[in-house]
Amino acid sequence: MTAATDGAGAASPPAPGSALLEARHLVQEFELRNFGGGRGGVVHAVSDVSLEVRSGETLGLVGETGSGKTTLARTILQAPRPRSGQVIFRGVDLVGLRGRELLEARRHLQMVFQDPFGSLDPKWRVSEIVEEPLVAYGVGRRSERRRRVAELLDLVGLDPRRFGDRRPRELSGGQCQRVAIARALALSPALIVCDEAVSSLDVLIQAQVLNLFEQLRRELGLSYLFIAHDLALVKQVSDRVAVMYLGKLCEVGPAESIYREPLHPYTVALLASIPSPDPEVRRPRVADTIRGEPPSPTDPPSGCRFRTRCPRARERCALEEPPLRRLRPDHLVACHFPVSESGDREPVAAATAPDRPPEGSTPTP
Amino acid sequence: MSAEPPALTVTGRSPAAAPAAHRRPSPPGVPLLEVSDLHVRFRRDGGQVLAVNGLSYTVSAGTTLAIIGESGSGKTVSARAVMGLLPATATVSGSIRFEGQELVGLPEEELRRRRGSDVAMIFQDPSRSLNPTMRVGAQVTEAIRAHLPLGRREARERAVELLRMVRLPSPERRYFQYPHQLSGGMRQRVMIAIALACYPKLLIADEPTTALDVTTEAQIMELLLELQQQLSMGLILISHDLGLAASHADEVIVMYTGRAVERAATRTLFARVRMPYTRALLDAVPRLERPPHSLLPVVEGQPPDLSRLPAGCPFAPRCPRADDLCRQAPQFEEHEPGHWWACWHPHGEGEEP
Questions:
Q1: What is the mean pLDDT of residues A290-304?
Q2: Of A60, A107, B207, B227, which sits with the fewest C-beta atoms within 10 Å of its C-beta?
Q3: Which of A156, A234, A286, A298 has the most B C-beta neighbours within 10 Å, making it the best mutation to test the interface with B?
Q4: Could you tell me how far CA A295 lies from the centroid of its own chain?
Q5: Per-residue pLDDT tens for B162-187?
Q6: What is the ipTM metric for this complex?
Q7: Strands B202-206 and B234-239, sheet pairing
């Protein structure tokens, strides 16, 4: 993940395929406080994560609760700023920017959140919600903004005459999410960060909104950083997929390659966990691919962070942190013993491993 | 209870040996649960919300029935009706027979006796179903003592045994912890332990894994099904996820606007989907087999307002196959052996997509 686009001016959009957004060695940590204000440890939410979103592509980011995927997204948007690292967006490092400069740089970087009701002000009308970014950035005159709002609502499939005057509580979850998307599109962004943007929607509505994202991508040439816990959903929308576990990247690569031949044991476990809508498809028991509970991010395991739950873990995994290395074209993995390196999908005999997982990670098959 | 966890010594009885010692024997030849023509209406703003409109199904001991539907399809309301857990604004009619005994109209006292001992329920969000101010062990013990004549010490031993049965890691230590000290998956394990406290004959699991991560979801489902076999319980699995039903249920009912629209054994249903709504649900799920950036086949629109249900087939306004005939409501009938559906224009054998 080092293909930097040094010298790309802030104004000129990068060529397709080059890095639009690049996170370099991002670190985000939160200090915990005990009762009374004493120090209660540090949550290592994002630990040295580097990734890029290329112009015109969708990068899927997959991980479970506590993997740091949402924190990573918010850190990229500088809310809050990272402990260390850089976020290069269209050639400008956002970390160094302040005030008006940051506001200007972030104009082309928008976000859509998970909870469609929680992210809209219940007292505002739909047209006001969508107009707000235009007002905040002083775009156009009032009549021009009105026209733009109608255009945006049309674009996301809401009739402006029917929905413009409604308030969020008069809308369904799917309609609210469309309003949030219209708001994100108002300033013609280059990149939209979607944080579990369809997770709370019913299946049929979810499909409608996913198709909307896809149509917008084709029509407007948008790039997405698409965060979700559902791998099948992420595959549906992504060109490349990054898998995150406990604040670290496990694997990054082309979507097809990751799903066909996952390299990291955690990716294998995630894939084995998806219930298939075909009763004839038998998948391996999840207990064989992952065990126990995720460790606390305040005290991540030494070496590889996944080793306490990994069926392939050996002594080396506790001693040495596996670096993210390239095993196939454009496909990186952070694992000492990747799964299909030698063609095997079977776990290395865990029973004979010299290093047993430490206490507290009792297997719960 | 002291702040320092006292050491708990538990006699090592195998959990499988204990079940059902107190269970009343089931009458032979009667299905465990038989719901027929169930209607649930809610009064609201002077109008009525028709939440469940003529639902019928049976569950036998040791089998799993999945009830699938979107928000507002009536799947949860119908389950709560079985539990007798609906608010006073609800009107329930029809029949719910548990081992042959009618539950509709039963006095609250009698319902309370059955709830938790014969029939138990686990809910979607384990963090909201547990009392945050009580240690988890005490919550399991409470459930045991509410129904069984056990002393404090015996109940506690049994609680630890239950926590071990649901594979909570180090149950003797966890017994004294509060819900916030457990992960989401562990909290759901505690909820299952509470539901199983009296080894119920029927367990209703309402979206038991929706709030959990995928790997945890798979672990919890494996646990639930194992316990179901071990205790030969009837299990009703309520979910929006057809994939979950496909991999875990024996029989599936698909609900839309408070009524069943298709019902069959899991294999039959997924091999030969008849109802266009079921087809739409299946097609709309992102699947690993699909290439990136492909558009999903969708049906437009939204489910109708339950206080103003259209005449005729409720899915007709969104259905690609609808025509004039659909203005009359199709009957939910057994069109093929073991396969019920309500549709005038079902998908046929020769034209499977």
A1: 88
A2: A107
A3: A286
A4: 21
A5: 999 998 988 999 999 999 988 888 99
A6: 0.82
A7: parallel
